[in-house]
Amino acid sequence: MQNALFVGVSSQMALQRELDVISNNMANVSTTGFKGRSTRFQEYLMPVASADSFARPDRRLSYVIDQGTTIDLGQGPIEQTGNPLNVAVKGAAFIAVQSPQGERYTRNGAFEIDPTGALVTSDGYKVAGDGGPITINPQETGLTIGLDGTVSTNLGIRGKIKLVTFANPQRLTNEGGNLYASPEPARPAGIEGRLESGALERSNVRPVIEMTRLMDVNRSYAMVSSMITRLDDLRGTAIRRLADVA
């Protein structure tokens, strides 16, 4: 009976983790370039007893282990904005930016020009260029961003946005502010990533799917809670009856 309670609690912990992930996805349905996540679980079978003298062998108990989350790297819908400072990332690439913690990566292509003339994201992070930060003087006109990230104005090429990919993008970790950190070095995107100027990539989270997942998780959590309550009541009844016999 005690083992059944442990199994139920492990299931509840896993469901709570999944609920947190779904909630985060739903909160970022409108976040530019956001990539949804899904939970990944693994079955853990409790080792059997080592003694050979048992009349009946131990049953193998199956627990739930949280194995982390995976990123949905599918392309989000592209929305045309007509703003030359907006770019949608296509393919597996990420845009490199400079944060206080060092180089980080994003799919947020909603750029702006800050008071110093630097090209920055909507959160204020400077966009990294292949040759350093990209700056635009207020007097310059005709700004365009090419497919490969080349930024040009009426005065010529002003820099090239640093597009990168990763050998294992599933190792990327969220740091808030729509930024990712990577434990492995980034590599140039090459043909794996292109930019579409005058457009933005929207979140790839599908609200209907997430709402369905949310209902399934809530239903499963309620079922496990009911099972734990019944087991606890059964244990209490057994203890009272044993006391009456004594």
Automatic annotation (TrEMBL):
<comment type="subunit">
    <text>The basal body constitutes a major portion of the flagellar organelle and consists of five rings (E,L,P,S, and M) mounted on a central rod. The rod consists of about 26 subunits of FlgG in the distal portion, and FlgB, FlgC and FlgF are thought to build up the proximal portion of the rod with about 6 subunits each.</text>
</comment>
<protein>
    <recommendedName>
        <fullName>Flagellar basal-body rod protein FlgF</fullName>
    </recommendedName>
</protein>
<dbReference type="InterPro" id="IPR001444">
    <property type="entry name" value="Flag_bb_rod_N"/>
</dbReference>
<dbReference type="Pfam" id="PF06429">
    <property type="entry name" value="Flg_bbr_C"/>
</dbReference>
<feature type="domain" description="Flagellar basal body rod protein N-terminal">
    <location>
        <begin position="7"/>
        <end position="35"/>
    </location>
</feature>
<keyword id="KW-0282">Flagellum</keyword>
<dbReference type="GO" id="GO:0071978">
    <property type="term" value="P:bacterial-type flagellum-dependent swarming motility"/>
</dbReference>
<dbReference type="InterPro" id="IPR037925">
    <property type="entry name" value="FlgE/F/G-like"/>
</dbReference>
<dbReference type="InterPro" id="IPR020013">
    <property type="entry name" value="Flagellar_FlgE/F/G"/>
</dbReference>
<keyword id="KW-0969">Cilium</keyword>
<dbReference type="Pfam" id="PF00460">
    <property type="entry name" value="Flg_bb_rod"/>
</dbReference>
<keyword id="KW-0975">Bacterial flagellum</keyword>
<keyword id="KW-0966">Cell projection</keyword>
<dbReference type="InterPro" id="IPR053967">
    <property type="entry name" value="LlgE_F_G-like_D1"/>
</dbReference>
<feature type="domain" description="Flagellar hook protein FlgE/F/G-like D1">
    <location>
        <begin position="88"/>
        <end position="152"/>
    </location>
</feature>
<dbReference type="InterPro" id="IPR010930">
    <property type="entry name" value="Flg_bb/hook_C_dom"/>
</dbReference>
<feature type="domain" description="Flagellar basal-body/hook protein C-terminal">
    <location>
        <begin position="197"/>
        <end position="240"/>
    </location>
</feature>
<dbReference type="GO" id="GO:0030694">
    <property type="term" value="C:bacterial-type flagellum basal body, rod"/>
</dbReference>
<dbReference type="InterPro" id="IPR012836">
    <property type="entry name" value="FlgF"/>
</dbReference>
<dbReference type="Pfam" id="PF22692">
    <property type="entry name" value="LlgE_F_G_D1"/>
</dbReference>
<comment type="similarity">
    <text>Belongs to the flagella basal body rod proteins family.</text>
</comment>
